[in-house]
Design a protein that fits this description.
heterodimer, A: alpha+beta, Uridine Diphospho-n-acetylenolpyruvylglucosamine Reductase, domain 3, five-stranded antiparallel sheet, 13 helices, globular, B: 740 residues, Aldehyde Oxidoreductase, domain 3, 3 domains, Mopterin_DH_FAD-bd (chain A), Xanthine dehydrogenase family protein subunit M (chain A), CO_DH_flav_C (chain A), FAD-bd_PCMH_sub1 (chain A)
Chain lengths: 325, 740
Amino acid sequence: MRPFTLQKPTTIGQAVSGKKESAQFLAGGTNLLDLMKKHISQPDRLLDINSVLSEKIESTAGGIRIGANVRNSAAAANELILSKFPLVSHAILKGASPQIRNMASMAGNLLQRTRCPYFYDTSLPCNKRKAGSGCGALKGETRMAAIVGHNPQCVAVHPSDLCIALSALDARVIINGKDNKETSIPFKDFHKLPGTNPEKDNNLPANAIITAIEIPSNPFNKNCSYLKLRDRESYAFALVSVAAALQLNGNRIVEARLASGGVAHKPWRWYEAEKFLKGKTADLSNFKQAAEIIARETHPLNGNEFKVPMLKGAIEVALQNCLTA
Amino acid sequence: MGFFKRKHEPKKVPEGRVEGFYKVTGSGKYAAEYKLENVCYAVLVGSTIAAGEIVDINTDNAKDIEGVLDVLTHRNRPQIPAFADEAKAKRAGFSLPVLHTNKIFFRGQPVALVIAETLEDANYAASLVTVSYKTDQAKVDFDKEHATVPIAATGKERGSMDAWSNAPHIREQAYTIRNQVHNPMEMHATIAVWDGDKKLKLYDKNQGVNNVQQTISRLFDIPPANIEVFSEYVGGGFGSGLKVWSNVPLAIMAAKQVNRPVKLMLTRPQMFTLVGYRPQSWQNVRIGADANGKFLGILHQAKHGTSVFDNYGEGITRISRLVYNFGNLKTESATVPLNLGAPTWMRGPGDCTGAFALESAIDELSYDIKKDPLQLRLDNLAVINDPDTGKPWSTNFLNECMTKGAEMINWKSRNPLPAQTKEGEWMIGYGVANGMWFAGRSKASASIIMQKDGSITVQTAMTDIGTGTGTGMQNIAHLELGISHDKIRIKLGNSNLPAAPSQGGSTGLSTISGAVAAVCDALKMKLAGYASLQDAIYKDAKPESIVLSDSGIAYQQAGNHLISFDKIFSKENLQTIEVEASSGPGEERQKYAFCSGASHFCKVRVHTKTGKVKIDRHVCVVDAGYVVNKLAAANQVSGAAVGGIGMTLSEEQVVDSTHGCFIGGDLAGYHFAVNADAPIIEVDFINKIDPNINPSGAKGVGEVGIIGAAAAIANAIFHATGKRLRDLPITPDKVLLAKS
């Protein structure tokens, strides 16, 4: 990797002021170090923020606050999360491997880069890695690519499982900006679509640091499920994944949440299908119709058309699993 | 970390794997782990185009990096003598003229080698080498190219194709498999150390130190005796270590250039392009049977990819000539040159590909005939004679494998009709398939060094790539000599030890067991010779009537009166007793045909909405002669079967024909099976001795655990769903989209 200097800020203020163009934050390093070894990310300086950020999970008036530096495995095993927001735990446990989850931070999980093979191979075109070089996947291998929200600039998908659950649960990303004041970004606005600048994955301001993730209290802890379909049973990224959550009154759906991974440049919410399910009976026939609505929103690429029927199946199964969860 | 810095020696040889202690404590060294004084590090730069020529290479920026010692390219590297002319290179058996040409044959081909004081310096500097190319049209699309390559007869035709053209049942289908890579845990690595101009030491990851020694001898024009190769611990191979790859001559050239020891370890991405793979294949099988299911004939055609610079043939159709009686048989094959790295033997090479087509086609035929696929196979097995040579099988208990496996998985409980058994949204199915591998044996040597305390070290140049060869050798020595396990040490993987062939093709144990038995006899006779100086009756002793123990030698004719080792050593004033012996195949190879066989049974569940395939049970019953060490043998079969699960359901090294290359180069994107994909593999053995093959009666088990596994799984998927999947890997999308 390119030589770099390592700095250890001791306060959030120091971390934020040290974050210049050529510097990057280092928390768990499970993605960044790989990218550095492959010369995809070449920072001059690394700011080790491990002693700066919170490792606490706290109950708040409105829900829960998860410190940025909580490790993925700690969050997955946390009693509060398991009882109030089990969907988060289910999703985390479908991601990566135990070793990686032990290292990876919660905030870092939000910032992981795509696993598109063209992004990872520096000798192939990729607009996300090198603006203006073209999209290698578009006319190449699209198995892992998007079916919604993509454009010819970039067909890569967001790789996280955790984020799909956070998206479904309307989490908020808490950040400290240049002025070191705490603000927040709604989860749906945190990650972005490729647009004309696919090299940017999200709307985190340049100098800002994520300090926490907040999830508002919700009634989805009883009937929720996370289904991940992939090419092997563990340690593989999603072909498609579904975070599903239902608030039920008897057999009637009061509120539904549906989000997917492996389909878009950002965690993707299926708002139309959620709207359809609201007030309906929780049964297979309605789940099938929701899946149909979702299928109509998709625009698969040449070579990944299979994701549409697979997604439909996954939506149905994930919703059914909500009833037996 | 102090633990890893201390030197660890067990108080006594532990039970289980002889190498286990050393691997677990880290004291056993893999190739890249040897610490050598003054060593420097090399990182190679691969071509970014698949076909064409290097026009220019700029190494200035790389050389400017502090710590960089030199950058080798085709312009400034030391000459490898054999690359001076093509005939010599061909004789050397090394087809890629690495850094000796400006031609590019595949993407990833080494075009420069950066040598630096540290790995980090070398790695960073390697990213700064820039190359400009003249690009030619690359051929990487196997599906497109294979249609243009004519097919030719391979092996002798039996009977005629006309004889069964009106057979009551004929099935003809094409089967395809994508590229798969070995990627053993330990990356290929070489540390090269020159001693003057003509002596060389290599610490290298491979499956045969003598093969490396011979190849490098021919390439560099140095006598083999001047080349020492150390591969004492090998972290897996699956066949990728059977060839000498570019990392070896590159490290040697670099060490020459900077006149220092040089370490070159491939990166994981480079493991995907530089050390072989199982090539993509197309097969067509036409199979015919009479109304009762007696096989009448087969046509088996196969094509597979190879590289443009190195023609490699898999022998895919061989399996169809061995397992069943086909009175009429024709096998044809072709290789398809592509601008990809060179493919090579990968676990169960050829046969594992061929068995997928053969055993799928038989399965399809069984449903046409409405005959139990198990019975159809049993009725047509060739367990008496090898149908190809007509020679009697020395032993072949494949029928017993089938019967035993069927009991284990409770085959008779299965509904004979496909797509009938459901559990919620899961469809349940059973499949069966057979595998076979020729049981080879080569010549090898071994030696024993005995110490005064009666402990011995058995040693040979052969490597143990994780198969348990060393442990098997210990068992054989114990059985032959009577000396207890904890007094038998094993030394392997060093070219200074008695010569042995590479460990591959399931021949390792079969080969070395003869040498171990022979050297055990030699030790007995040597000891009897010394004993006869004290008791003349030992003069007539034969190895079979001599028994050793931990304390001494005994002989039946001498009333089993024991003469202690201590007495022999002190009387003759000996420090050690050393013997060496060789053993190899003989005329039994003229009389008999030899094989290992396996029957695979699989129970799967397939999700109707997501296409997900889950393997509930996988049974593998193996006939491989006498089982020298059941734990190690079962471990081999189990690992091979898990490899078979990956091959069937998920493994694919994707080729991008637009960019002319393999796509993806990491283990997150290449989906070999993980524990969660496999049930506990249920392994059993027939365990009947093959009296002719070698002194131990044991045959190799490394390959048969994967040969047939894919078809058993695919057949089970058909039985579950009524969907016939003929293109591996059978990923969930294919299951979902297939028509029943």
